[in-house]
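Last lecture ended with a question: if I hand you only a sequence, what can you say about the shape of the protein? Today we answer it with a concrete record. The protein is peptidyl-tRNA hydrolase. Below, first the input exactly as provided, then the predicted structure, then a couple of comments.
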Amino acid sequence: MNDSEEMVLPLVVRIERAGPPERADALEAAAMAVLSLLDDPGEWAGELRAWQAGRIRKVVRRARGAEWRRAVALPGRTIEHRTAEVRVHPPVPLDAWPRDLARLQVSGTELSDTGEPGPATLPVLWENPALRMSAGKAMAQAGHAAQLAWWASDAAGRAAWRARGLTVSVRTARPAVFSAKVDEGLPVVRDAGFTEIEPGSCTFVADAPWLGGDRIGPRVPPVTPT
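The predicted structure:
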């Protein structure tokens, strides 16, 4: 790897034909998988530093059966969250994915929710209701939102978050609420427009009392991660 190589964080969601995960569970699991690596990169600290030095690109692929078993055999961590299983792998150069990950499908990952979400826990990652994103795209964006929230958290905020297991809630905001939260100075994900949506689109806002915003503290500048 050289300093000019663009890095990407691979995420794999398990989607079996007989029992696909709930959409919200998959988005939350993706965010928690990213947080797990940020909090404790372990042996992949070098790869993580190289990845965070550039755009924090994430690509979500799907797997089932033998595909999933091959993905689990590769270095990484699996987050199990209610109906969802998501595996996060150490960052790799954009054009040098491990073969068993590169062959997995990336586009058209669709999931749905069969019931109403339960009570939200902080932080809440608010999805923009005005955008139409596949589940795979939304998972990557939720991961971005969690990462921006982690960067915006001080030591006390991270410790409290860690004590709760680095959990998040993903919810779709009402249009007026989403716009207001963008204006509050909370961490905002603005997409680069590589896939599905227009460049500069605000996809997610991360919301928690310790993240600042105009309501309770100094403004946290929006960041463009991808």
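Comments.
1. The two ends are 20 Å apart (CA to CA).
2. The chain is about 35% helix and 20% strand.
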